[in-house]
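#help-structures
NK: newbie question, is this the right format to request a structure? protein is Methionine aminotransferase
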Amino acid sequence: MQLTPKLTNIDTSIFTVMSALAHKHKAINLSQGFPNFKSDQKLIDAVSKAMHSGYNQYAPMAGNLDLRNAISKKFELLYQTTYHPETEITVTAGATQAIFTIISTFVKPDDEVIIFKPAYDCYEPAIKLNGGKPISVALIAPKYSIDWNHVEQCITSKTKMIIINTPHNPSGTVMHKTDMLKLQELTDGTDIIILSDEVYEHIIFDENLHQSACLFSNLKARSFITASFGKTFHNTGWKVGYCCAPKALMEAFRAVHQFNVFSVHHPTQKGLADYLDEPNHYLELSQFYQKKRDTFLNLIKDSRFSYTPSKGTYFQVLNFSDITSKNDIDFATYLTTEKGIASIPMSVFNDHNRDDKMLRFCFAKTDETLKDAADILNKI
């Protein structure tokens, strides 16, 4: 057989590689972004109750209506704006599926999509699979801020979409109001679609405010917002997320969504709907994770790593340039196999694997795990 796959020269995800290496060498796994503590028992009980109450057949294609109503109310509470639960909100199999479907719905051969690197690794393959061309704008360590003059130069008549991510994985930075206003200005009067990846919207620190695309009326009119209950409620294995967009955009999205997923696990949706009745379940998350961040940084304050405290997400980037001249992939491998702690090398998210001597560590762990990790890092 002569096979010609559409996606070539794509290596196994770094998350899979480092987690497998951590498992093989029994290392503390601060690489892949998942909590090692339980979800709230109230949420687990709510999902179990939904199963026993008969929510075991297909959910509506757009998602359980109770959950879509709860999402709509959440936007109203947080951002004083909302999306219509029947026409502007769709529940998805995690945020990654939402992102893939948005790109598949709109990106055609030779369309250009602007992405900011370092970038989460699901954006670029989806663009290429649909014949699009990723246009990279580099974020330079350690601040990882956006050069909007460069973005303006990258916008052409072929620009179909701009993908933003705030709070930002992998850097832990956040976009500010000035960034969003500049993005709004640059896209005003165009047909450019904004894909705003906001999966860490509830994990933001130091009294910063999450600058959702829905807060800016002209942006909201052209934007998809993607979100993740897995990231929010410590259950990444459930793979339930959602996306929001104006009706016309959402109608186009659902035309594709219905054929690659159709609907998402129904009892989980109903359980989440009931759990969202108490806003503190998400309003208290920033404080919860800031305490985790501060604990981790306090534990490693005397180490040889340098850092700028994360502004959001549950990731902390550490600079190791004062420790070794190894490249970040080699150093991350060494730490995993020889020292017993796994991280993610940041170069894999950069164009041409630019090496800024940075490693990403996940602090969504128990305090005991963070202490054990810090004991290793302090001896490097």
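mod (FA): yep, format's fine, and the tokens are attached above. The mean pLDDT is 96.
NK: thank you!
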